[in-house]
Structure formats: structure tokens, C-alpha cells
Amino acid sequence: MACFINPTLIRFLISSLSPPFSHYFFTSLAAVSTPNFNNSQLDKSNNEFSGIAKAVTLKCSHLWDDNKLSNLSLQDYLVKLSCINPKTARRYLRFSKLEPQDVLEILLGFESYDGNFEQKVRKIESLWGIFKWASDQSREFSHDSQACKIMVSMLVEARMFRDAEMLLGKVESRGILLEGGELFSNLIVGYVDGSELKRAISVYDQMRGLGLVPLLGCYHVLLNKLVQFGHTKLAFQLFLDMARNELGFDVEGKQVYQKVIQRLCIEGKVQEARNLVKEIAAYGLKPNSLVVNAIASVYCEKKDYDDLLSFFAEIDCAPNACCGNMIINSLCKSFGTEEAFLFLQELDFLGFIPDEITFGILIACACRQSKLKDAFVYLSEILSRGLKPHIYSYNALIGGVFRKGMWNHAKDILDEMNDRGITPELSTFKVLLAGFCRARQYDEVRLVVREMEDHGMVQLSPTEDFLSKAHLLLGFNSSSVKVRRDNEMGLSRTEFFDNIGNGLYLDTDIDKFENTTTKVLDDSMIPDINNIVLRDFCIKNPKRTKMLVDDVLHWGQDLSLSVFSEILNKLCASRCGIRPITDLLERFPKLSSQLDMETLNVLVEALIKRGHASKAKIIFDEMVRRRQEITNNTYTVILKHLCRVGGLGCVQQCWELARVAKWVPEYEDFKVLIDLLFQRNMLKEALELFETMTVACPHMQLDLCHAFLEYSCSAGFTLVAHALTEEMSKQDFILDGVAYSHLLIGFCKEKRTARACMLYDMILAKNLSPKFEVLAWLIPELCRTRAFNKITNLRESILTEQPLLPLSINNLMNGFCKAGMVGEAANLLQYLLLKGVRPHDEVYNILLQGFCQNKNFWKVAELLGFVMRQSVTISTQSYRRLVSVMCMEGRYASALNIKEFMLRENESSHELIYNILIFYLFLSGNVKIVNPVLEEMQERGFHLRETTYNLVVYGLSCGEDVSRALDYLGSMMSKGIVPSNRCFRAVIKCLCRSGELQKALKLSQEMESLGRFHASSIQYYIVEGLLTRGNLLEAVNFLDRMENKDLIPKNIVYDNIIKLLTCRGRQDKAVHLLDLMLRNGSIPSSTSYDYLIQCFVTCHKLNEALDLHSEMLHRKLYPSTNTWNSLIQKVCEDGKPEEAEALLHFMVRMGEIPVRETYCTVIDRYCSEKNYSKASELLESMKQQGYEPEFETQWSLIRHLSSFTDNDKNKSKPRFLSRLLSDSGFVRKGNPKAK
């Protein structure tokens, strides 16, 4: 049974303050939203561009108006949705009013649609528009609860959280409780993902107040965010709530539990952590080692060991080795080894299993406290338990005996080590050297050095002796410590003797010498693992790093913050992967929370660069919460990432933080960000960034302007860029030709030729020089619009340039030819030649292609001869155009000659040259020449490849030479060459036309096995062939198979098949194909609609016909006259003359003229219903169309209208009757004007 929080507990949840948030929560979130950083200040008050972003935003506000879907009709929304589910949308197109059940059915019809996120958002926006449209019909309208549930779910899916929350509030105010907590849970998760924690808590509070329980995943997401932001009290209560509702604990739940405990312990709230562990244990979740370690560490810090022991007894859990060693180490430091050993016995009773490190800690502390006897007792404990002492324990014992002056026993311990197979390390020998030097036992020192040399740890140079080497290993240099012989006759200074009895002493600072050796002995007793980690840390060996960190924890020590920071900084600066960094952060959450600003900034940047942006964002949010300074580079890195893949809400939140912090990116980063912002249509932010940069970097304003204009115009926002330049000009900022060039190119790309021309005139008036590539865009636009004056001026300006620029000439020639002004291009070339200028080869090629495009063969031949004499290189594109013209003109010899010329000039493009010739030979219908060309290819050693095979098969198929096409098709497939779709399409078409349907079906099966799309024509010819043979069912099965196997390409066209199926009575399948076209992005032709409507009319399915007719009109398709007439007459027959009349009038407004029978049908229907007034009005409309009504119809109306008495309130009827009589040749008696 799920337990629900009562109002009292809710109030306790929020710390007994005003719901729905605690005062602490409000304060913390306010800190997030209004940070106060001390980054570089930007003084905008005196800058000329201050406020320019706001001015441009106001001027261009229409470009980013978010209210695009406002004021749309029901039909507008349905048409937008019809490409997703045409059947559902079509059904409601004729509705002028929706009932709650209608809205529910519409939502159900679109609920299961799967598409990409953007498509889903567009769908949901339209459905939300329908939902609100229905609500606005009247105050009494009330949506079905199921419809509300679906709509909320969709809104959350589209990340329209505010709308979803508003709808939930409305539903709740009506006293309706939607089923389950899934909707609220999804909304909470959405708000958390969008970094709107305050709203997430508000929804959670609302949800629990309604007695609903969030989903387990919702709890996890919310708890993670609360822990991340440091709201431990709320997280504590929330986790208890989750546990009390008996939702269970999966892997993620256990991780959340661990994070909550760790966060409580970091904040020193050990009692709350302990209470939570105790309560959660009652629900079957035992604390893991990390949870126990976190609580134990706080107790150790507080030296509250009795409570720690009771905690272990309470949870019936013994600590692991690392935790136990930490406790023993803490006790040794605080109360000595005796107390620590007694506590160890208590832990032993609880089930703790000490290891050699545990006793090693006791040995080290005992030696440090000069309790050598106790140290050997602890060593015996190790041995009695069958454990192997750690080398650090032996080092401590050796140091201990030296400190006690028992140097003669040191070698015994060393022998003990060797007997147990423990190889001495450098640290062990350093202890021995320090002890023997301190005891002045230099004979022993000599032996130790020799042994080190044997182990390969040291190597004596010819100038070194053992004594100087020993001193050097202890940190002394050769000049600071010298051994002297005591030759004094007076007071003896002898400290030791050599092997022949000479008295020796040390010539050094004795106190310093004693202190240094003593420090070596003391350090050997309690190893400083942190220094060892830092010393042995290796970036290239992450496993070694992990082992070193494990050693720190195993010895019960804490990794110091300085070491932790240094390791992180080194990892971030290295090229290592992400795993070592995240492992450290997860293992040491407390240290992670204590990192300084510099390290955190480096960490965020490193995580993003390594693709771990989610973790970087968490750290970034934590920095914001703690009001730590965030560097410019960190803002830049995270904004670049968010602009690429982040949600809009996250981008805007981070953007606002950066703006408040006076963030200014580097110039290269500015360009990247501007590009990304325009890609996301974030125009306001792009303008703000531009303003910020121009204020911060006044010396770079022109460069910034160039970058902004380039990216804005490339993204299709030239109007915004132009508005910006106008505002800058108002500030007397002088723009150069480069800036205007970007605008010109943008206007040309967007086909705003008039604006481009005006801008170009302004550039000329200002004597500016646009970039060369501008002409490539501007000239074709001018030529296309026949702006002859501007073209002439442009040509003159180009020709007056000295020297003439080849790029400008090329652009001008290209523009002339693209616009069909080939004569102008030829004149330009002639002008250049007369001036003695030899144009670039590209100029000749452009003109050659222009003549080919105009199909002026004589001009082509004339220019071609000149080009060859000038040794101009003919491009592949020119060759293609030449062969095309020659083949179409029937000049095949010329085509073969130009082929030979190209083969000589292009040694590397032989296959391409032959393929072009083969293609145009087939296109011109001359198949006979293809065979010799193919034979020639093979004689010259050119094997047929994929492209050539496809061309040949396609060409033979188009020429109806099906047998040879199949031969080549079989040949290429036998060589493992897969034919192209175009090739398959041509062969299948040819087979179907020649009546060989079975072969066509076999090829289709081959395509199916290859997973190839079946184009519209393939499906049509196969279906037509099957239907011609009476195989209707097989044709339908074939179409079904295409759909089921997803072999239908985008933009499929089924118009012809729809006609065939409709004529054979399969309107259901025809409509399905119509819907399939719409779902694939194709709009059916009006003919398809006409056939279906007329068929439905014939089959007496009037509603289906009217639905299709309405859809047709909304798609701006025009029904045929037959469709109109048949539909109107059918509506009339169905007893709906008013609807028929409305259709008839609509038909007339669209420019169609109804046939006489249509008018008569509606009039007769009105007469049969005795609605003579309507009939008479329609009769008048009929006469306005030039139709004369039949005498019987007129007489019937006259007879019935004359029967009305003078007391009839409708005075228009006598007037109409009079007019009708007059038009029919009758004149009222007594009329003086009658003749």
C-alpha cells in the first residue's frame, strides 16, 4: 500500500514555511538566478553601440514572433496535421463545432505517431491549438478527462511544461483527478531537466497534496537535482517519502540513496544520515560500504566513537577494511594505540575482519609513541592470524628500534623480512641508513649501501665512496657532511672508529644532521601516503593511479585536498580519457565539494572537451550556486556545447548568467557562437553578443561586424543584418565594401533582388568595392530580372578596371549566359579580344555552354573551331553540352570527333567521356551507334563498369530493346555489379509495356531482396499490368508488400494507381494510397480527388465524398465541374438542399459554372419541400448564369407564389412574383407603362 503525505507532513517537508517552497529553497534558487560575479566590468554608458541590440530587436521583432499559431481556424490546424494522419484530420475538416468526444478522438488518432522531436513538437502545437479552440467555443465546454490526460502527456513530451502545468491546474480546479501520477511525474522530470527546480518542487507539492505518488524515476531525478544543489533537508524528507511509499530500490535508487547520505555527511548532518539509514533499512535496503564509510568519517571527525560503535550495532553491519582502518587510524591519533586496540576488539566482535594494514596502523602509531613492545605484540597478532606484514610495518619497527638505540636489532628485522619473502624497498634502506648514521655505525652503513647496489637501487661512481653516497641518499650534499679523523691532542672529538682503530668524527652541523636522520626515522613509522601518491602518480597509467588512491584509503588516511586538486589538474591537462577524472570525483564527493574556483573551471572545460557535458553542467551549476567566479573561457566552452545540443531553456539560462557576469568571449569563439545562435534562430542573443563584443573590443568593431554579417546572411537573416547596418550607420560608423558584400550575397540568396539592386546602387554611390564573389551572385539576379541599365553599368565598371580581373569577367559572362543573354556574352568576348586581352579558358567554356543552351549549332561550331585553334581546354561540362547539341541535331560524326579530341586532351577521364557520349546517343534515339562505341571501348582496353552498364541498360530499355537490356543486366549482375534504381525502373517499365509481366515481377523481387525503393513508375506499371490481367487482389497485395517492407520512397506519387483502383471498385485501397502520399510528403493531384469523390457519390457514400471535397479545397486544389455537379446533385438527393445550395454558390465563387441540371435539381428539391422562396432565389441565380428555366418549373413557382395572400409578412415575395411574371412575358393589367 502506498502511503500518502498528509498536509501536516507536506508543511514539514518545506520546513514549516509557506507552501509550496521553503524559505531556504527560495533563497537558494534566488542565488542561482541572480549571481554576483566579479568578472571584468564593461562600461556601456559611453559606447556608441550601447543599446544597438535592443534597437534592432524592436525593428525586426516580426521575424521572431512566437505567436505563429494564434488565430488559426480549426481547419488550419487539421490541414497542418493531415500529413501525419490524413484519415483523422479529414473526418473533422467540415466540422464547425467540436464536442468533447470529438477532441478525444482527434487526440487518440495522433497519439501514436512516431517522428523526430521537431516533427512531434509541430504536431503537438497543432493539437494544442485544437484543444484550446474547442475550449473557447463556449464557457460550458468541458474536455473529457482522458483527452486532458493525453494532452498533458503530449505537452510534456514537447517540453511545453508551462502549458502542461496550466492544463493540470484547470483540470484540478474542476475537481477531476487524472489517473495515476505519471503525468505529474513526467512534468516534474521535464522541469528538472530544464533546470527549473522551483517549478518542479511546486508540481511535486501539488501532486502529493492530491494524494498522488510520483513514479520511481521521478523521485530519482528530483533527488539527484536536490542533492546537486545542496538541498539536503528537502532531499532527506523526499527520500523518506519515496521509501514509505514502498516503491522499491533499483540500481539507480541505491545510487541516489548513497548520494543523499554522502551529502548529509558532507554537511555534518550525521544524525539525519543515521536516521535515514535506520529507517531505510526497515524497508530492506542495507547500507553499502560507501554509505557506512561516509557516516563513520563524520563520527571520526567528531571523535564520537561510542556513537559510531552503537551505529554499527544498530544497523547490524561491520565496517569493511578501509572503513575499519580509518577508524583505527583516527583512534590512534586521538587516544593512542591502547584505546585503538580495545576498539578494534569491539569491532572484531561485530564482525569486522582486520587485515595486515589494520595492525600496520597500530604498529606505526606504537613505534611513533615509543611503545616498541606493543608494536611487536601487534606484529605477533598479524603473524598469528596468518597474515603477511606490510613492508611499511617493518619500516616502522626498524625505525622504532633505532629510536630506542637498539641499532643492533635492526638487521634482525631485515632478516625476518627476507625470510618471509618481503623484498626491501628504497624506503626500507633509507631507514637503515638513517638509523646507522645516527648511531655512527658506518660499517653497517657500508654494508647497507653495498646491499642497495646489489639490488640495483644505487650505483657508485668511481669518485664516490659509500659514505658520501649514504649521506646523499639522506638528503645531504657532499660539502655539508664530511668525515674527519680526530688528530687533536687535546679534547677528543672522536665519535666512532674505523676498522683499523682511527678515531673519526663528522664535520657538519650536528643538530641539523640529527634532526634530518630523526625525521627519516619518524616518517618511516607513519607513512605519508599522500606524498607517495603525488610522487608515484603517472598520467599514462590510470590503473596505477587508482591503486595509489586505494592505498590511501586502505591505510585509513584521507586524500588531502591539495593532492586531490593537483591530480585533477594534471589529468585535465593531459590527454587521458574521462574515466580517471570521473572516478576521482565520484569516490571523493567531499573533496569535490571543496575544490577551488581555478580547479573547477579547468574541470568543467576538460569534461566538456572529453564529451562528458552532463557532469560538467552539474559542476557548473554547483559553482553558480556557491557564487564562485566562472571564467570567460568556461562560459564560452559551456555555451558552445549548449548551443549545439542543449535545450533552449538551458541555453537561455546559461546565457543570462554569462550576460550578468559581463562575459566576453574571444574573437574566434565569438564567430563560432554567432554561427550556432543563428542556426538555432536565437536572434536576440546573437545581437546581444554582438553589442557586448563591440563594447568590450572597440578596436575590433569592423571585424566583429564582418563576422556577424557573414553568419547572419548565410543563415537567411539578411534583413536582421541590414537592420543592424542601418543602426550602425546612424552612429556614424563607416562600413566598408566587405560588409556590404555580405548583405548583397544574402539578399541574392534569399531572392530579394530589388533590395540587392538598391544596395548595389548605394555601394556605387559610396565609391566602395564589393568582394569579387558578390558578382557571382548579383549578376545572374540582374540578368534574370532583365535589369538592363544596371547590367550595362556593371559591365562598364568591370571593363574599366585596370587590370581586368578574370573573376569579374567570368561572373559577368556566367550571368549573361544563365539569363539567356548569350549575344551579350559573345559581344563581351569580342570586346576583350579586340582589346588584346586573352580571356581565361573558363570564359570560352561559359560562352560555349551558352550557345549550346540556345541550340545554335552554327555558333557552336564557329566558336568551337576558334577554341581549338586557341588551344583552350574544353571542360567536361562544355563537352557534355556539345555532345548533347550534336546528337540532337543528328550530327553524330561531329559528336564522335569531339569525343576523340577530348580523349586526347584528358587521359584520366576516358570512362566519363564515353559515358557522356553513350547517354546522349541513347537520348537522341540512335541506338545503332552505341554498339560500335561499346566495341571501341573494349578494343581500347576500357572494361565496362557500373556507370556504363547502367547507362546501356537504361538506354536499351528506353529504346524498347528489352532482350538486349536483359542481357546486359544479367551480365552486370553476374559480375557482382548491382544495378541502379533508375536502371531497374527502366527495365521493368519496358517489360510491362511489352507484356512480359512475370519478368517484371521477378526483377521487382530482386529489388525487394536488395531493399531497394520502388519508385512511383515501377509500382504503376506493375499494378497496371496485374489489373489488365484481372489480378486485382494480387495488385493490392503487391502494394501492401511495398508498404510493409518500407520500400516506398519519399514523395511517392500514386495518382495513376488511385485512378486505376477507383475504376475497379477498390476505393478503400485508393484512399489508403492517397493517405500514404500525404504521409510521405506528396500532395495528390486534383484528378485523384475527383475520381474518388465521384466514385463515392456513385456508391452513395456521401460523407466520404464531402470529406475529400473539403480536404481538396483546403489544399487549394480545384475540383472539376463534373465533381462539383455530381456532388451537389447527390447532396440534394440526400435531402440537404441548403447544403447543396451552399456548395453551388461556392462553386460559382471559384469561377466554375454549374450545369443546368444541377440548378434544376436543387430548385426541384426546394419545391418538393415547399420552400418556394429559396427555389425562386436560386432560379434567379440560375438565370444570371445565362440559363433559361423550363416553363413547367417557372409555372409551378408562379402558381405557388401567387397563392400567398396579401397578409403575408414577407413583402419581397409579391415583388419577386411580379418580376418573375414580367421575365416570363406576362404584364400586369393597369400598368400605365405597359405596352
UniProtKB/TrEMBL annotation:
<feature type="repeat" description="PPR">
    <location>
        <begin position="425"/>
        <end position="459"/>
    </location>
</feature>
<dbReference type="Pfam" id="PF12854">
    <property type="entry name" value="PPR_1"/>
</dbReference>
<dbReference type="GO" id="GO:0007005">
    <property type="term" value="P:mitochondrion organization"/>
</dbReference>
<dbReference type="GO" id="GO:0006396">
    <property type="term" value="P:RNA processing"/>
</dbReference>
<keyword id="KW-0677">Repeat</keyword>
<dbReference type="InterPro" id="IPR002885">
    <property type="entry name" value="PPR_rpt"/>
</dbReference>
<feature type="repeat" description="PPR">
    <location>
        <begin position="1120"/>
        <end position="1154"/>
    </location>
</feature>
<feature type="repeat" description="PPR">
    <location>
        <begin position="180"/>
        <end position="214"/>
    </location>
</feature>
<feature type="repeat" description="PPR">
    <location>
        <begin position="980"/>
        <end position="1014"/>
    </location>
</feature>
<dbReference type="Pfam" id="PF01535">
    <property type="entry name" value="PPR"/>
</dbReference>
<dbReference type="Pfam" id="PF13041">
    <property type="entry name" value="PPR_2"/>
</dbReference>
<dbReference type="InterPro" id="IPR051114">
    <property type="entry name" value="Mito_RNA_Proc_CCM1"/>
</dbReference>
<dbReference type="InterPro" id="IPR011990">
    <property type="entry name" value="TPR-like_helical_dom_sf"/>
</dbReference>
<feature type="repeat" description="PPR">
    <location>
        <begin position="736"/>
        <end position="770"/>
    </location>
</feature>
<comment type="similarity">
    <text>Belongs to the PPR family. P subfamily.</text>
</comment>
<feature type="repeat" description="PPR">
    <location>
        <begin position="596"/>
        <end position="630"/>
    </location>
</feature>
<feature type="repeat" description="PPR">
    <location>
        <begin position="390"/>
        <end position="424"/>
    </location>
</feature>
<feature type="repeat" description="PPR">
    <location>
        <begin position="253"/>
        <end position="287"/>
    </location>
</feature>
<protein>
    <submittedName>
        <fullName>Pentatricopeptide repeat-containing protein</fullName>
    </submittedName>
</protein>
<feature type="repeat" description="PPR">
    <location>
        <begin position="945"/>
        <end position="979"/>
    </location>
</feature>
<feature type="repeat" description="PPR">
    <location>
        <begin position="355"/>
        <end position="389"/>
    </location>
</feature>
<feature type="repeat" description="PPR">
    <location>
        <begin position="805"/>
        <end position="839"/>
    </location>
</feature>
<dbReference type="GO" id="GO:0005739">
    <property type="term" value="C:mitochondrion"/>
</dbReference>
<dbReference type="GO" id="GO:0003729">
    <property type="term" value="F:mRNA binding"/>
</dbReference>
<feature type="repeat" description="PPR">
    <location>
        <begin position="1085"/>
        <end position="1119"/>
    </location>
</feature>
<feature type="repeat" description="PPR">
    <location>
        <begin position="1155"/>
        <end position="1189"/>
    </location>
</feature>
